[in-house]
Every structure is written in C-alpha cells, then in structure tokens.
Amino acid sequence: MRKIPLAAYAELCAAAMIAGSSVVAGKASALRLPLFVSQTACLAVALLLLIPLALRTHKGTWKVGIRDMLLLLAQAFFGMFLFRVFMLYGLRFASAAEGGMMTSLTPVAVVLLSYILLGEKMTARRGGGILCSLAGIAVIQVPPLLMSGAADGPASVTGMLLLSAAVAGEAALTVLRKMLSPRISSLLGVAYVTFFAFLMFLACSVIELLQSGFPKIGAVDAGIILYYGIFVTALAYVLWFRGVAKVPTGTAAVFTGCIPVSALWLSYTILGEPISLRHLAGTALVFAGILLVSGAPERRSEPRSTAA
Question: Domain EamA: where (predicted)?
Fold first, then answer.
C-alpha cells in the first residue's frame, strides 16, 4: 500500500486553479495586447524570478543530458509556446464558454497521450474519476451551447479548432514531464522550459514589432503581464511539474478538470457573471471525480521504457 500523496494533489489542484484564471486574464490579454510581444514580456518577468531561485538552489548542477534537453525543448515548444499561441488566438475568435469547454477536454488528451507514450494502464477507479469529471464539465458547458441555437459561424469554428490545438499542447506538457529524468527538479525544469519558450516568443515578437510598432502599455496591461509572469508561468508551472512527478499521469489528468471550474467561478467572482444550479452540480461532479481518483492509495504503473 502506498501513502496517498496529499501534497502532490494539493500542488496539482492549485496549479490547475491558477491555469483556470489564465483563461479570464487571457481573454483580456488577447483583446488588448499584441500576442508575441506581451508573452515575451510575461516570460521575461517569470525568468526574473526563476533564474535567481534556480541559481540559488542548483549551484553548479545546471547541466542536463541531451535526451533531457530535447524533452525540455519539446515541452517549451508544445506545452508553452504553441499552447499559448493557440489559446490566445483562439480566445480572439471563441467565446469564454467555448474556451472553458475545450480546456475541459484536457483529461482525455492527457490519458490518451500517456497510454501512447508511457504505456500507463487505465484502472477502473481512474477511468471512473475521469468520466465523472468530464460529466461535471459537460453539465456546466453543454447546455449554454445547445440553447444558443445555431453555430456562431466560421469565427467560432476557427476558435474551437485553435483551442483544441491548445489542449493538445497542454497534454503534451504533462506527458513529456513524466519522461524527464528524475534528476531534473521541478524548478530547474520550469526554468529551462520558460527560457526556451522566451526565445521562441522573442523571435516572433521582433517580427510583430516590425509590422505594427511598439504597443502602448497601460496600468491594466502591465498588471496582466505581471500576473501571467509571476502566477500563471512561474508559480503554476512549478506546482504542476512538482505534482506530476509524484503521481501517475492518469491521476494528474483528472486534476485538469479544475481548470474550467476555476475559470467559471473566477468569472463569477471577478466579472460578476451569473451562477446557476447546473454550475453547482457540475462543480460537484468534477471534485467527485478528483476524490474518486485520489481517495485511496493505488499502485503506480510502470511506464514503458523509452529510448535514451
């Protein structure tokens, strides 16, 4: 019998809640700021925190093997660069309800990728937790889309496709983290991933600046950049990397159900959007799924060996 990793569950839940808040902030960012320039600034803020912390914690231990370096680069490309590009462009075309619905598909994407790349088995309890979580998300997200009548048109379809690609990138980040050597700490991993993503956004932001010039940054815009850099990037990614390293990928997948729930309740708290009975029922089902997965010890499956 294994001890229930309560600390890992708390880290995953907190990281997913912060990620949910990024949907609310991301909608504002997508409408107000140039994508590549703003994300370059966000990552620069995160690096100002991560690099000193990593230097203090990992004195002389920054070196990683070629395989781990390639995995970190892949995490930066799929899980941070492409995820943010697709998410923020998608939020320009899609509504907040569509954005929440698409991020709720992350558990399924994570489970599928973990089965393909890691060979993790699907236990009855884990599968039940995922289904319960998805049912809760469906209760929250589907009725408004059905009641809205006809589709909103090509722009909405474009947004949904972009958000679907963002979900795939988020799932890749989680699964690729499991493939890293255990010698790579969460802090060091996030520092490398953030730095690589910063270089990718920086290259694109140069082109963006040449095309449209330097944008005017107001107090609200600066606040969004600071929030994205400090909380959404530095804090959330460190918490998620720490939690994912301690539990099976299928278990971590269930906690991504907190993302749309967090986005929903923060919209109510911050934006004053109404909450109905279906929101309460959906939230209860999501957390029931989390309890189903995390409520008792389970044996962790051994992943398939990967080429070094």
Answer: 13-140, 158-294
Residue range 47-73, pLDDT digits in tens:
999 999 888 887 667 788 999 999 999
Rounded Cα distance between 62 and 243, Å, is 21
Q: Which residues are CB-contacts of 93 (< 8 A; sequence separation ≥ 6)?
A: 155, 156, 158, 159, 162
Q: Distance of CA 214 to CAs 211, 217, 220, 255, Å?
A: 9, 9, 17, 39
- At 246-284, the pLDDT tens digits run 888 777 877 877 887 787 777 777 766 666 787 778 778
pLDDT of residue 198: 97
* Nearest Cα to Cα of residue 171 among 252, 290, 91: 252
Q: Report in angstroms the alpha-carbon separations of 131 from 55, 69, 107, 164.
A: 42, 35, 9, 19
Alpha helices in 58-152 (DSSP H): 66-74, 83-93, 96-103, 106-113, 124-147
Q: What is the pLDDT of residue 261?
A: 77
Q: Cα separation of 49 and 88, whole Å?
A: 24
* Domain boundaries defined on the chain: 11-295
Helix axes 219-227, 35-57, angle to 10 degrees: 50
